[in-house]
């Protein structure tokens, strides 16, 4: 009897990579044109807006590339072991089952990429029934039986048929029977029936994802007759007519864009026309949940070529469908915001590539570099709308960026908060950059920081001001500095720049210079600085019995004092505070008299 487990949705389980073995088969070389997308330079600042798509520097639509497609699938030792076990199960029970690996694994293998995402399609039984037979065979062999996870049909998550999952030699394998799908006019949820291998291939989203690897025959099966050809051409197309495919399931528009961007492939002409169709755009906005749209966008932004993906979304007229804005904006959105947003993303991508991955280094206590990069790119993309607000149901003024992240894409609330905070801090960094570069407004800033109880030495004004900003933004300060360097040309004189590359170099040097200044001031990690005195100790010195605004103000002064006296001790801090309290008493007496 098999074990039945309730497993979390796919993506939350740990996928263990198979053992790797060098591929030795001779690749075939084909020529294709990279994704052709019109390019428009930004006019709002002079950073070069190049169609940069990654470390290789290949630009979409500007240059031909070679797509290497292997003649056959080259299995790793672990994959050979897994497939041999599955065939043993078929032979032992006389099942007569044809086992086919479907979809992305086949595509990636033919492109020479490793993949641990093994989905097996069965022609004569359900996935759960086959998994139970695997366990029976394991028992027959005197081996431990594995738990079977059954993922129920969930159309809202694009799961239209029950899937069984189990560990085989430490690799998670999904099993599902072949199927055909028929869609109702007003729903993206299909009627699913058991189908043939060809029907299963034809109902797939893209031709390059419709290939099978038949484990029984060890052959690649291209049952649409176009999968291999399109892979060789570097072409993104649908097995059936694109418009009907997209109307059946409009989410496939975003999947097509994501794969085109990931592999720098070209979108087929018919597919682009279908994706730009007003009815398809309307269906994408009305039939697909915001969670599913946000998930696809997040995959694009976290992938290797997010600029290409956002360019496609813009050029296909999908920007305002994907990134839905709230009503009653201030100031109102206009039809060029899509170009501004994507141009900012392109500029950020170029500048980050020029500076290097250190931009996304926030210290050991912050998020990973990949996560920081993702948040930085979202911040850059939505920089042009950072000063837009709307009124929520409680008549509260809310940043539009927060709405897009939380409601339009249904991403984490913490993502929205972080991106908004990066935008706010980037404006403060603009003033700091000016201060660090030229000492301009130093006395004015000193007057803002000083008060009747605390006078900050002029040579420490920079440290105190920078420290206050960093304590607010914490481990994301490099991202805020980066966005500030990207957005604010007024912090330096860019008008005399002889060329785009020169301006890019200037902004890179500005970023590096300010970063060095902050680290030289020993402020990286200043947000971890603990107050020398807590609220209770301050209340004792001030001789008050309860807290309130007075204690809050002294806590703010205390932070400034510690920033101005990095080597200061608790005793010195208490002495300063006592003297200040006595001074306050004298002033009150003088006022009375």
UniProtKB/TrEMBL annotation:
Q: What is this protein called?
A: Poly A polymerase head domain-containing protein
Q: Which GO terms describe its molecular function?
A: ATP:3'-cytidine-cytidine-tRNA adenylyltransferase activity; CC tRNA cytidylyltransferase activity; RNA binding
Q: Which GO terms describe its cellular component?
A: mitochondrion
Give the classification, highest ranks: Eukaryota, Viridiplantae, Streptophyta, Embryophyta, Tracheophyta
Matching entries from Gene3D superfamilies are given as: Beta Polymerase, domain 2 (3.30.460.10), cca-adding enzyme, domain 2 (1.10.3090.10)
**InterPro entries assigned to the protein according to its UniProt record, in alphabetical order:** NT_sf, PolA_pol_head_dom
One Gene Ontology term of the biological-process aspect is: tRNA 3'-terminal CCA addition
What are the protein's UniProt keywords? Answer: RNA-binding, Transferase
What are the Poly A polymerase head domain coordinates in residue numbering? 99-236
According to its UniProt record, which protein family does this protein belong to?
A: Belongs to the tRNA nucleotidyltransferase/poly(A) polymerase family.
Q: Does the keyword DNA damage apply?
A: no
Q: State the organism named in the record.
A: Hordeum vulgare subsp. vulgare (Domesticated barley)
């Amino acid at each position: 009897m098999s074990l039945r487990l309730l497993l979390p949705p796919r993506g939350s389980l740990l996928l263990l990579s198979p053992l790797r073995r060098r591929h030795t088969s001779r690749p075939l070389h084909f020529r294709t044109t990279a994704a052709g997308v019109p390019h428009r330079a930004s006019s709002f600042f002079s950073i070069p807006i190049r169609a940069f798509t990654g470390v290789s520097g290949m630009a979409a639509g500007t240059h031909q590339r070679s797509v290497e497609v292997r003649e056959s699938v080259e299995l790793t030792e672990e994959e050979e072991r897994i497939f041999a076990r599955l065939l043993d199960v078929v032979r032992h029970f006389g099942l007569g089952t044809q086992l086919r690996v479907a979809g992305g694994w086949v595509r990636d293998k033919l492109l020479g990429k490793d993949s641990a995402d093994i989905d097996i399609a069965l022609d004569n039984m359900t996935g759960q029934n086959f998994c139970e037979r695997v366990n029976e065979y394991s028992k027959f062999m005197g081996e431990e039986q594995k738990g079977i996870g059954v993922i129920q049909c969930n159309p809202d998550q694009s799961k239209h048929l029950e899937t069984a999952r189990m560990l085989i030699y430490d690799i998670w394998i999904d099993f599902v029977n072949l199927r055909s799908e028929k869609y109702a006019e007003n729903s993206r949820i299909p009627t699913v029936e058991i189908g043939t291998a060809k029907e299963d291939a034809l109902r797939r989203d893209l031709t390059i994802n419709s290939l099978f690897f038949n484990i029984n025959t060890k052959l690649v099966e291209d049952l649409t007759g176009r999968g291999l050809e399109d892979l060789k051409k570097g072409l993104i197309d649908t097995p059936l007519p694109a418009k009907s495919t997209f109307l059946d399931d409009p989410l496939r528009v975003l999947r097509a864009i994501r794969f085109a961007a990931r592999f720098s492939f070209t979108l087929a002409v018919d597919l682009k026309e279908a994706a730009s169709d007003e009815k398809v755009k309307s269906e994408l906005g009305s039939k697909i949940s915001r969670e599913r749209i946000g998930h696809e966008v997040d995959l694009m932004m976290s992938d290797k070529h997010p600029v290409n993906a956002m360019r496609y979304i813009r050029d296909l007229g999908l920007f305002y469908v994907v990134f839905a804005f709230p009503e009653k904006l201030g100031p109102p959105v206009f039809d060029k915001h899509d170009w501004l947003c994507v141009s900012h993303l392109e500029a950020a991508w170029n500048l980050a590539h020029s500076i290097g991955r250190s931009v996304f280094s926030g210290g050991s206590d912050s998020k990973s570099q990949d996560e920081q990069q993702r948040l930085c790119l979202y911040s850059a993309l939505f920089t042009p709308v950072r000063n837009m607000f709307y009124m929520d149901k409680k008549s509260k003024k809310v940043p539009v960026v927060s709405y897009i992240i939380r409601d339009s894409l249904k991403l984490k609330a913490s993502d929205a908060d972080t991106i908004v905070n990066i935008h706010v801090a980037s404006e403060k960094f603009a003033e700091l950059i000016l201060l660090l570069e030229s000492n301009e407004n130093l006395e004015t800033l000193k007057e803002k920081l000083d008060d009747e109880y605390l006078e900050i030495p002029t040579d420490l004004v920079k440290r105190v001001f920078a420290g206050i900003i960093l304590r607010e933004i914490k481990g994301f300060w490099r991202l805020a500095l980066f966005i500030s360097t990207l957005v604010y040309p007024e912090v330096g004189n860019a008008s005399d720049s002889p060329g785009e590359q020169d301006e890019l170099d200037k902004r890179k040097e500005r970023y590096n210079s300010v970063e060095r200044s902050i680290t030289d001031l020993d402020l990286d990690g200043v947000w971890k600085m603990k107050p020398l005195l807590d609220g209770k100790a301050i209340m004792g010195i001030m001789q008050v019995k309860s807290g309130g605004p007075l204690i809050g103000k002294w806590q703010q002064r205390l932070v400034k004092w510690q920033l101005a006296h990095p080597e200061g001790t608790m005793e010195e801090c208490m002495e300063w505070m006592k003297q200040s309290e006595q001074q306050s008493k004298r002033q009150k007496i003088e006022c009375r008299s």
